[in-house]
Amino acid sequence: QGAQVAFGGNQDTSAPVEVTADSLSVNQKDGTALYTGNVIIAQGDMRLAAPRVLVVYSEAQQKIQRLEATGGVTMVSGSEAAEAERADYSPEEGVVVMSGNVLLTQGASALTSQKMTVNLESGTAQLSGRVKTVLNQDGQ
Amino acid sequence: MARAQGLYSQVIAWLKILLPLVALGLMSTLFLFSRSTDPVSELPFADNLRRTGDAISEMVSAPHFSGTTSRGDMVTVTAKRALPQVSGDVDAEEVTARLQMQDGSEINLDATRAKVKEGEQRVTMRDGVRITSSTGYELTTDVLVSGINEIDVESEGPVQGNGPLGTLNAGKMRIETVENGKDVQMLFTGGVKLVYLPQNK
């Protein structure tokens, strides 16, 4: 079953994407780029942090197809934050797919699931795969 | 036979003495009053050579160094001019180092000045060093050291420029073979920042 929640404000997906990291290695044969060492991908007010990000680049259209962040990813957008083992972010479509025990915290409540697809432009997140909602009763 | 009397014979007799003396006098002026020509200073030296000092050390135009690595990559260093120094190093100008990897990819390093240390098979490039790679990276840095018989390039300072993914700057850059020795990689360290402009829709 799935759940649809709002996630971060709607975001201008044509804003520049900034990637900072400790180091970057570019393989000269096929041009794949691998960022390692507290990598932060930022666009607008969305931040995605991970220890390792592989850039899958499409030579044909001269643009980034997707950024594969692995090794424990935290994503912050506006006031919401989400954590997962892995996240695939494609800047062109402005979609982030987080997978591997996703934890989404929104204010007091938290949701967990196997997979979450965040559409940055519309500011919505689609959770799927054993979605559980944990509502903290305040005042306890 | 006595000389005939008469004025004519006397004049001729005196002339026979005077004329040789006059000739002798004329001849002597040839050497005594000649211009003082000092042959050495008169020789026309090429002035422009003396000013630039090129004439002192022999200059090689369009020199060419190359080396192949154990993996089969080719490193060729060419320059417009090279001035071999006494110390065995060679100072070169307008230098291009071309790294051709056996997997087909290529990296060019250009600089206006370089010093080739033949003994250590290394070239140090400075002044406007530009790095262009077949994977679409175009970077500049101040000083870069590259091996001649192996793929081992290292920038001494920060590198900036743009790549296929956008504008990039990093604290340091190395070009080396990956551990499995098959591929060559460009390794940026010391803090990397890339700005990518999505061209969506």
Give a structural overview.
The complex is a heterodimer of chains A (140) and B (201). By secondary structure, chain A is mainly beta. Chain A is built from no helices and 13 strands. In chain A, a hairpin with a 2-residue loop joins strand 10 and strand 11 (109-119). Chain B has 201 residues and is an alpha+beta fold. Helices cover 18% and strands 48% of the residues of chain B. Chain B is built from three helices and eleven strands; from the N terminus they run αααβββββββββββ. Chain B has helices at 7-32, 39-42, 47-52; strands spanning 60-61, 64-68, 74-84, 90-100, 106-117, 122-133, 138-147, 152-155, 159-163, 166-177, 184-196. Chain B starts with 6 loop residues before the first helix and ends in a 5-residue tail after the last strand. The mean pLDDT of chain B is 82. Chains A and B meet through strand 2 and strand 3 of A and strand 10 and strand 11 of B. Strand 3 of chain A pairs antiparallel with strand 11 of chain B. Chain B: Pfam families: LptC. Chain B: Keywords: Membrane, Transmembrane, Transmembrane helix. Chain B: This is Lipopolysaccharide-assembly, LptC-related.
